[in-house]
UniProtKB/TrEMBL annotation:
NCBIfam families: AmmeMemoSam_B. Signal peptide: none annotated. It comes from the Eukaryota. It holds the Pfam family Memo. It comes from Euphydryas editha (Edith's checkerspot). This is Protein MEMO1. Gene3D superfamilies: LigB-like. Belongs to the MEMO1 family.
Length: 153
């Protein structure tokens, strides 16, 4: 795709940076159906469009979807993305749904001692928030589980 539509205006995808990332051979292309199924970015794009409205003709976006990564792959992607993250001209928006729960996402973890499914998911979300606030990466890894593959453009 070349752009994402929002209710305000279209956000243009930066094809040059996509080509640079693709040249690393560490990214996979996401098909349109997977992109449409993955709803987290569509929740953020209208807000980004609103905040950036004054600059709407002067910026592009580079959506990257990341699933569960090993520490080695975290380091690899960190090294690849470091120059973009360090550039003060770039605004980086990082978001997580914490958990996509259900068979559709191949993630159905549940702790029956936590009550109903929604209570178990809420408990899991709160655990992730706590570990994120404390920046305790070792403890953060366990509740998330494997929910996806590597990184996709």
């Amino acid at each position: 795709m070349d752009k994402y539509q929002t209710p305000l205006y279209d956000l243009t995808i930066d094809k040059q940076i996509y080509a640079e990332l693709e040249a690393t051979r560490q990214f996979e292309w996401m098909d349109v159906q997977t992109d449409e199924d993955e709803h987290s970015i569509e929740m953020h794009l209208p807000y980004i469009a609103k905040v950036m409205e004054e600059y709407k003709s002067g910026f592009t976006i580079i959506p990257i979807l990341v699933g569960s990564l090993t520490p080695e792959k975290e380091a690899k992607y960190g090294a690849i993305l470091a120059p973009y993250l360090a550039d003060p001209q770039n605004l980086v928006v990082i978001s997580s749904d914490f958990c996509h729960w259900g068979p559709r996402f191949r993630y159905t973890w549940r702790d029956p001692s936590r009550g109903h499914i929604h209570q178990s998911i809420e408990w899991l979300d709160r655990q992730v928030i706590m570990y994120t606030i404390l920046l305790n990466k070792q403890d953060l890894v366990w509740p998330i589980g494997a929910v996806g593959s590597d990184a996709a453009l």
